Amino acid sequence: MSTRVRRPDAGDGVFILGLVGRAGSGKSTVANALVADGARLLEADRLGHEITDGDPEVRAALGAEYGPAIYLADGTLDRRRVAARVFTDAAARERLNQLVHPRIVARIRDAIVRLIAQGWQGVVVVDAALMLDWHLERACDSVLAVIASETEQVERLMRARGWSETEARARLAAQRTNEEYARAADAVIENHGTPEALATAARTAVRGLRAARAGARAPGEAGSGTGSGAGPARAHP
User: Are strands 187-190 and 234-235 parallel, antiparallel or unpaired?
Assistant: First the structure.
């Protein structure tokens, strides 16, 4: 019997999908495919950037800790410098997290409330690397995990972010494992192929999750094949 906690069924026509997985697994590809189909996207990274760049209290706190030069000429945070510090300084990382994370969670929750109040009907994708740490999965109707081998994750991170292999592996080592994300999810996509195959897999998985949530699963949707190159979307009971 599942012990996963999800949003109570409110009958409001909104399907809130939590998207989880390690860096380099393909979450952005999944999110972009769903947005192309009309979904709304709430992206924790983007909200975090808005907060560190625009929240006066956050700017003052970061300026006090790192000095005024921590903000670049264009007014944005020098994220590379902050990242270098918090990656090796646990106390600094905790101070940053305590400053920024509650604000990100509040913005995500507020955005969901606004969409429902506005009468939005459809999918809302919540993409947050720390979703499980923040317990945001409890505000979702379903959670979809995207997983890949560490070799694939490292290769993608090196290509997309310009990291060295050592840096990519170090960043991954600080994250939850594929298995942890899979256990927490209602369905899992194994991403071993092309972006097109992954997008197809995502659409198939979401159809199945929405049907299951509605109590009227269409036979063969969740857990079905997802196209060449992507593994099957495994539905969890």
Answer: antiparallel
Q: What is the CATH classification number for the domain harbouring 116?
A: 3.40.50.300
CA distance 13 to 100: 31
Q: Is the pLDDT of residue 42 over 70?
A: yes
H or E element in which residue 15 lies? strand 14-20
The pTM for the full model equals 0.86
- N-terminal to C-terminal alpha carbon distance within the chain: 8
Q: How far, in Å, CA of 197 to CA of 103, rounded?
A: 35
Token pair for residue 200?
């197809």
pLDDT of residue 218: 43
In angstroms, the CA 175 to CA 226 distance is: 27
Q: Which residues does residue 188 pair with via DSSP β-bridges, in sequence order? A: 145, 234
What residue numbers bound the domain in which 192 lies?
14-235
Q: What is the dihedral of CA 198, 204, 205, 209, to 10 degrees?
A: 160
Give the type of residue at 234: R
**Which helix (H) or strand (E) covers residue 155, if one does?**
helix 150-161
CB 199 within 8 A of CB 33: yes
